[in-house]
Amino acid sequence: MLSVAINDLRFRNPLLLASGILDESGESMLQVIKHGAGGVVTKSIGMEPREGYENPVIYELSYGLLNAIGLANPGIENYGEEIKIAKRGGVPVIGSVFGKDAEEFAYLARKMEEYGVDAVELNLSCPHARGYGMEIGVDAALVEEIVKEVKRKVNIPVWAKLTPNTHNIVEIAKAASDSDALVLINTVRAMAIDIEAKLPVLSNIFGGLSGPCIKPIGIRAVYEVYREVEKPIVGVGGIIDARDVIEYIMAGASAVEIGTAIYLRGIHVFSEIASEMEDWMKKHGYEKIEELVGIAQVR
Amino acid sequence: MLSVAINDLRFRNPLLLASGILDESGESMLQVIKHGAGGVVTKSIGMEPREGYENPVIYELSYGLLNAIGLANPGIENYGEEIKIAKRGGVPVIGSVFGKDAEEFAYLARKMEEYGVDAVELNLSCPHARGYGMEIGVDAALVEEIVKEVKRKVNIPVWAKLTPNTHNIVEIAKAASDSDALVLINTVRAMAIDIEAKLPVLSNIFGGLSGPCIKPIGIRAVYEVYREVEKPIVGVGGIIDARDVIEYIMAGASAVEIGTAIYLRGIHVFSEIASEMEDWMKKHGYEKIEELVGIAQVR
Amino acid sequence: MYRVVEIEEIIKETPTIKTFFFRDETQPSPGQFYMIWLPGVDEFPMSISYIGERKAFSVKLVGEGTRKMHSLSEGDRLWIRGPYGRGFVEKNKKALFVGGGSGMATLAPLIERMRGDVVIAARTKEELLFKRRFKNRRVYIATDDGSEGFRGFAHELVERLLEENEYEIIYTCGPELMMRKLIDIAIERGLDIQASLERLMKCGIGICDSCSINGYRVCVDGPVFEKDILIEMSDLGRYTRDRAGRRVPL
Amino acid sequence: MYRVVEIEEIIKETPTIKTFFFRDETQPSPGQFYMIWLPGVDEFPMSISYIGERKAFSVKLVGEGTRKMHSLSEGDRLWIRGPYGRGFVEKNKKALFVGGGSGMATLAPLIERMRGDVVIAARTKEELLFKRRFKNRRVYIATDDGSEGFRGFAHELVERLLEENEYEIIYTCGPELMMRKLIDIAIERGLDIQASLERLMKCGIGICDSCSINGYRVCVDGPVFEKDILIEMSDLGRYTRDRAGRRVPL
Ligand SMILES: Cc1cc2nc3c(=O)[nH]c(=O)nc-3n(C[C@H](O)[C@H](O)[C@H](O)COP(=O)(O)OP(=O)(O)OC[C@H]3O[C@@H](n4cnc5c(N)ncnc54)[C@H](O)[C@@H]3O)c2cc1C
Ligand SMILES: Cc1cc2nc3c(=O)[nH]c(=O)nc-3n(C[C@H](O)[C@H](O)[C@H](O)COP(=O)(O)OP(=O)(O)OC[C@H]3O[C@@H](n4cnc5c(N)ncnc54)[C@H](O)[C@@H]3O)c2cc1C
Ligand SMILES: Cc1cc2nc3c(=O)[nH]c(=O)nc-3n(C[C@H](O)[C@H](O)[C@H](O)COP(=O)(O)O)c2cc1C
Ligand SMILES: Cc1cc2nc3c(=O)[nH]c(=O)nc-3n(C[C@H](O)[C@H](O)[C@H](O)COP(=O)(O)O)c2cc1C
Ligand code: FES
Ligand code: FES
Fold first, then answer.
1. Predicted confidence (pLDDT) per residue in A24-45, tens digit
2. Which of A188, A281, B108, B155 minimizes the number of CB atoms within 10 Å of its CB?
3. Are residues B137 and B143 in contact, defined by beta-carbon separation less than 8 angstroms?
4. What residue in D sits closest to A67 (Cα-Cα)?
């Protein structure tokens, strides 16, 4: 009932683990799969090992999280083993990568392909790492070049993950339309100050906002892009229950990714949402997720 | 203790009413002043009367509001009386205006000046009205032209209210730096779908997100702009208590505007926050708001 | 967030008014209202006309939104938010309830909870709402055309009743001009009064200013106002605001 | 959101460990931890070492953050969030508590709530933590250098004690290698065991994966793990992850 396909890639359910949450080590991804995820996206992996920013890297808000992990990652050369372990889970593993230019992205994607991932996700959208992610992701020409170059170099599907920190996500989505799917959205650039400390809380000052508070921004991005770009969309941002998933799907997403909800509801959130979704679909007489994709679009 | 100045304009406290909330009629503004606001910004007024969008124009979220009022307003020619009434409150009245080009903005600002406002606020940032606000506010050249033209035509201070729906608010702020103050931020472009109705909730589909959920975005905008542009800043977005106000001030704001909190806490929110602020300042040994402006900046 | 409720029963009260019963967990007090959204059509405010476990809206057909509402059937769904606003304040005073047209919808649950006499007014006989709802009550009828009961406006009947009875408070809801007259009567005679007002509502939660009258928001400061505030409302019965917020004569 | 607490009292426990007392409304259970932020310096995890109305952290100086912590005075403030994680599960079994170095900080509030014998281990005499904290208890001491009590490692002393006593469960916190040995002993002898682990922590709330060991997050699935899970942790005492997330030999 919940099974979906993005292009030719089949998922037992549309609930994928979002990049950067519990997906650095293969064994953690296995746990997430055990708890019901339909697929997992790895943490974003770069050319070299990166320690990320100093603590604090996270700040709890009552309606979400602020984070600036700083793209900490073991580096692509050390990552093959983790993919191998994650693949044991029997669901698609999507390798997320970040680079500073088309060449790096292509190299990283090739490596991921070698390691056996089922698709690569290009992180064109991290809002707080200089020279990476969002700084690249708001430049339509660069986005187009990167996506084209990666497509040339790999045979697996290429997903482009875009930032909401732009005035025109549709334009960026069009620039990325050589990809096989669009992933919307990454975190929103934000920060917090502790007034007793009189200092920004994150050691990096700026971070990314995730969780329920960004859902209306994510829904808007998916809705806007769906009507303008004919590509499967993976919706991300602020999903905590089945209603949120259905909202994304009705806006135009074919599947979703879930991150912060693991903090809010625990790792079992995947199987819980899956059964909530089945209940909802039965009650409303739907048999396949596909029937719901984009049905809230007003033409 | 709470008195602040933006350029030469003095406010009894830094808590101004934000544009668009309870400020269409002069008498409503008087009520807000009676409940403690240090100043009021009028609803954004345009060239012609506008009915705004059909209902629903508002959607309640657990961490904020989504709205698409659609710049409903009586039109500038009908607005003189409201200003006259609001002025009776004895605190500065700032006239907010929106136009489609520099000429309209200048005309509207002149009219506001005639009506006796203490400053004009240019709404360069409404995220959901076609051809107005944000569509203009993300174009740096246009912003510069509008601000320059308005400055040429009026003698009162000119405030520029900017949108967070851009990847580079600093660039827009620089373009607006002929103004006398920068107002950051307007609402964030967003939407919601009702999954039972299978439709977007707002009749306009897209709206603006306000309230606690956007505070980390507003703080970030103020913090980023303060370090790059030497202009007084008025912080807006998600303020519900004194701690939020102090956070904005520490980020670099000289005063703040408050909107959605009227829904969350009631119209008495201004006097309540004012006394919360005095308590905090006494406890922490501060005598003037100015001592706090920008002190969380890390250099 | 809207809650979706199912229409359990529809009763045609008058040629233009239907009552829609539904179940909902909220506990409104008399005089409070909800916003009803009919997806794809409109959203509008509606007082609660039955407040027990089974609740209801009694809706007069006046325009596009209420026409759609009248076309609904049992089993159909309503999207609602609320209850909103301040209802009536129950005072221990000898009361007269005066409902004009669909204003009776707002007043009815209050009448059921209190003692006091009732005036039901309407243009014509067929439009009298809830004529048989109140048991063991003195119910006076007024119609503009005299087709039933007193011939003339509600406030005229009220003036007569005041000659004969020692009412201490008037609770009213109905056309604004009727309420204006009743307020003037109450001021003149030193009676207490509470009136439930109707104004154009957009947000329903006190921020858009569209429902404001002399600085008071009907949606959160009202819809029911007490006498001290009503006295201050110089626009009541004289000026209103249109959808653009222009102050226009009523 | 951080809470700001004031340091009421500082006690120097050993040349490298100080206890910082403060008051806070939260109600942690033994084995839970907090994240302590020293603004402008660092944020790090710290077990609660006193859990009453007056709470405390007992902090060993190991690097930059803990050095700053050691330089604080009474009246200074700490920014904290928590309590986080799962503490010890109190079982009705004859218990032996084994704390190594600053691991005694974690174990102490549990010991105070339960019966059972205690092993306090450290490199050397001066580093023995909470030697005099537990009244009417059998407390065994072990030092690596033999400067007090048993000369040798904690697990060696434990093996001896197990010869003479019928302990049913070991509760432990200390250096990972010590805990690894104790787990192996528990498996071998069929004893129950709970161990409080330490790993590099960034978020403290279960999302960054930096503290994970064989797919278990020390910050939310732990820091205290029970035997069934400890058995599965093939990396424990063998591999750890560095700040970049690389798996490296311990
Ligand atoms: C607090 C409150 C409680 C209400 N309770 C009830 C109730 O219990 N039963 C009931 O039948 N109606 C009630 N109303 C009125 C009801 O909301 C309107 O009749 C409805 O909005 C009309 O919607 P429409 O789309 O059918 O009409 P529209 O197409 O929007 O308008 C049709 C005509 O009705 C007029 N109109 C619309 N709304 C109002 C209004 N609020 N006041 C005066 N004239 C209006 C318009 O000016 C127009 O001439 C209440 C209104 C408020 C503010
Ligand atoms: C759940 C938990 C509870 C803890 N409870 C206590 C406690 O009650 N008392 C106490 O003194 N300490 C405790 N610790 C350890 C404490 O968090 C570290 O000592 C502290 O983070 C070191 O910070 P630093 O900035 O001083 O050292 P750094 O400058 O960060 O590092 C200095 C050295 O210590 C090592 N180190 C740092 N953190 C750890 C760690 N978590 N595990 C192993 N080695 C580490 C580093 O690798 C480095 O060699 C606990 C750790 C965890 C995970
Ligand atoms: C702690 C944390 C780390 C993240 N790291 C990455 C990352 O490495 N790459 C990436 O593309 N997105 C990263 N994200 C963004 C998430 O994948 C996701 O887009 C975002 O959190 C919104 O979804 P959510 O609200 O479900 O968390 C991270 C988010 C969080 C909270
Ligand atoms: C109902 C509503 C109407 C608004 N109308 C306007 C407007 O006309 N002009 C404008 O500049 N901003 C308008 N705004 C934006 C607010 O002034 C403010 O920037 C935003 O709501 C963030 O502040 P808050 O979180 O305190 O509400 C409106 C906001 C709301 C909620
Ligand atoms: S309807 Fe918006 S303020 Fe009353
Ligand atoms: S510290 Fe982040 S998952 Fe444990």
1. 999 999 999 999 999 999 999 9
2. B155
3. yes
4. D203
Q: Read off the pLDDT band of B167 (50, 70, 90).
A: confident
ipTM: 0.95
Closest to A109 measured CA to CA, from A46, A162, A172, A40: A46
- Chains D and A in direct contact, meaning 3 or more beta-carbon pairs closer than 8 angstroms: yes
A183 sits in which H/E element: strand A181-184
The answer to whether residue A213 is catalytic is no
| Structure-derived torsion over alpha carbons of residues A212, A214, A218, A224, reported in degrees to the nearest 10 | 130
What residue owns the CA closest to ligand 4's atom 23?
B237
Q: List the residue whose alpha carbon is closest to atom 4 of ligand 4.
A: B20
- Strand, helix or coil at C226? strand
* Closest by Cβ to B27, choosing from C35, C40, C214: C214
Name, in order, each residue with C-beta under 8 angstroms of B89's C-beta and a sequence gap of 6 or more: B29, B30, B33, B34, B40
For chain D, 250 residues long, give each residue's pLDDT as a single digit of tens.
899 999 999 999 999 999 999 999 999 999 999 999 999 999 999 999 999 999 999 999 999 999 999 999 999 999 999 999 999 999 999 999 999 999 999 999 999 999 999 999 999 999 999 999 998 899 999 999 999 999 999 999 999 999 998 999 999 999 999 999 999 999 999 999 999 999 999 999 999 999 999 999 999 999 999 999 999 999 999 999 999 999 999 8
Smallest-distance ligand from the CA of D217 = 6
- For C196-220, b where at least 16 C-beta lie within 10 A, e where not — what string? bbbbbbbbbbbbbbbbbbbbbbbbb
How far apart (Å, rounded) are the C-alpha atoms in residues B254 and B245? 10
The rounded Å distance from CA C223 to ligand 5 centre is 11
HSE-CB at A288 with a 13 A cutoff on CA atoms is 7
Averaged pLDDT, B201-206 = 96
> Which residues on A lie below 8 Å from B209 (Cβ)?
216-217
Q: Is the dihedral of CA C78, C68, C42, C47 positive or negative?
A: negative
Provide residues of D within 8 Å CB-CB of chain A. 1-2, 4, 35, 37, 39-40, 42-44, 77, 79, 81, 202-210, 212, 214-217, 241-247
Whether A49 contacts D244, CB under 8 Å: yes
The residues facing B208 across adjacent strands are B67, B189
At C157-193, the pLDDT tens digits run 999 999 999 999 999 999 999 999 999 999 999 999 9
Question: Is the shortest distance between the CB of B42 and ligand 4 below 6 Å?
Answer: no
Cα separation of B289 and B2, whole Å? 6
Say if the Cβ atoms of D214 and A27 lie within 8 Å: yes
Please state the atom number of ligand 6 nearest to the C-alpha of residue A58: 2
Mind listing the pLDDT tens digit for each residue in B240-295? 999 999 999 999 999 999 999 999 999 999 999 999 999 999 999 999 999 999 99
- Domains of chain D (ranges; CATH) run 3-84 (2.40.30.10), 95-249 (3.40.50.80)
How far, in Å, CA of A283 to CA of D60, rounded? Answer: 58
The strand pair at D17-23 and D33-38 is best described as unpaired
Question: How high is the mean pLDDT of chain A?
Answer: 95
Of the candidates A58, A73, A198, the beta carbon closest to that of D203 is on A58
Q: Please give the domain boundaries of chain B with CATH numbers for all domains.
A: 4-291 (3.20.20.70)
Work out the angle between the directed axes of helices D154-164 and D176-189 (0-180°, nearest 10): 20
Which of D33, D78, D201, D208 is the mutation pick for testing A, counting most A CBs within 10 A?
D208
In angstroms, how far is the first alpha carbon of chain A from the final one?
28
A96 C-beta closer than 6 A to ligand 3: yes
